[in-house]
Specification:
Elements (H helix, E strand, L loop, with lengths): L5 H8 L2 H33 L12 H11 L1 H6 L7 H19 L2 H20 L1 H12 L9 H26 L4 E4 L2 E4 L6 E3 L7 H17 L4 H9 L1 H23 L2 H29 L12 H8 L9 H18 L20 E2 L2 E5 L4 H6 L4 E9 L6 E9 L8 H7 L4 E11 L5 E12 L2 E11 L2 E3 L2 H21 L4 H9 L3 E9 L3 H16 L8
Antiparallel strand pairs: 1-2, 2-3, 4-5, 5-6, 6-7, 7-12, 8-9, 9-10, 10-11, 10-12
Length: about 550
Amino acid sequence: MGIQPENTVSCQKRTSAMILVDYWPLIVTGVLFLVIQWPVLRNWWHVWGENESYYSHGYLVPFISAFMIWVNRGRLMRADIGHSWLGLVLLLIFVPLHAIGLLMGLRVIYGVAFFLCIYGAVLMLLGWQITRITFIPILFLSTMMPLASWMIDSATARFQLISATVATKFLQLTSGYDVTQYGNTIYSSGLPGQTLLVGSPCSGLRLLISLITFSWFFIYVIRAAWWKKLILLCMSFPLSIFINSLRVTLIAYAGFLTGSEEAMHKFHDYSGYIGLLICFAILFGVAKLMKAADLSTGAPAPEEESRIKFWPKPVGKGVHFVVVMAVFIVTAALSSRLPSLYDLPKGQINRSNIPMKFGEWVGQDVPIDPGVEKELAKGDLLNRYYVDTVTTGRRVELFIDASLDISAFHDPHQCLPGGGSPVTNDKVVIINFSKPRAVKVRATILQAGNDFGRTLVIHWYMIGPNSYPTTQEMAQAIREAKMGDFWRIVRAPWELKRLQADIRSRQIIWYRFSTDSYDETKDEEFLKDFIREFVAHVPDFGK
């Protein structure tokens, strides 16, 4: 027998312990990265696990990203290990962004910092060639990052209306029943309870987010021209709308055929998975028709396969590793000492200042709907009906929501159509109060309803003496306040405790008054008079 080459002999003698010796800098870097990013990952993990989460696929994304890197193993074998000091620039930007993101609870900021940290470390320890090869697989991790709540709420409302409209058309064409639509609610005599509400879980946005995630992965691992990949990616939006509308249609048919709301709910619970599978099948079918369905395994040539088994030098050691460790250790120590400025307590209504009786009006508290209570969990909620017990017998509903967190509020422009009462009139007015103090309030007046009845709503938000007629204006005011908080941190980081106290005094109170509407002009004046009389008996109003 001939003498085996030296490198082949060393290949056979290598053990797991020897591999750990060569790669221990990368392992240590990875462990410290997890320690630094633990608050971020914990927040994302919580969002992934929420009921009806838009990001329930987040658990799988890191494994898919790892597979995308594995597909590139042939290119990685041919790449040279190097180092780039540009990585240090990214890491030095990462440190303050990470700290500010955690302080202010801003997902966008600490999400950007998350990628600066990864790319900076890869550049420092492995160099440009490895960074270029792994750039897209690492960027794919962005599909597990939750978007800001206000962005999701805005998109959900639009998708709900689109899905309800398309499903209604399907049912009108195919069912043989009289089917009508009011906002996000579908009415038909053939449905149990005669209604089908297209709520947030049925909006189709969850399906779109999951489909974009899968499409990105799919077009990455197939062998095809770039324009074919672009077509497949652009299919995600119309395909998700079509399949989700079809899903709503099938839920309605479950009601038509069984006459059971329970059957509709059961089909609803697993129909989302069916819709996702149908989307995947259609996407793969279109790829086959375009001759773009061949998957790339990234298998290296035999000589490259043998090369990886005896990579000749340890990876990641040296001064670059020391610098990365220093940055990571400083960041970990800094993060552990930072307070979370927007980890806010639940809001609080001073119920002793909300009159149960005044003038001819007598109030009675009513239970909060469990669904509403869950969705607005960070708010202190009060729902009360006032009845004129002396003259008219009319009833006015009061809903107050107090919170330090804007996630505890829901825009009536979304919830009214969602409940089957499309908004037919929308305007901003000024209401002047003289008691308990002179206050000028900008409020929104909404007329909403359908063939079964109409409702008049007047609502506004208050932060101290300042009023905001719409959810968007209130949210903009909070964003501007957060920007001011940001600059306070930059100018005087040693005053964090004082800033935290100021933030916790910034409670938002939402007042919503509603009554049945018969004559728009007269009812508007009636409700305004009620509000003025009510406010006159609230001693801390406008403080």
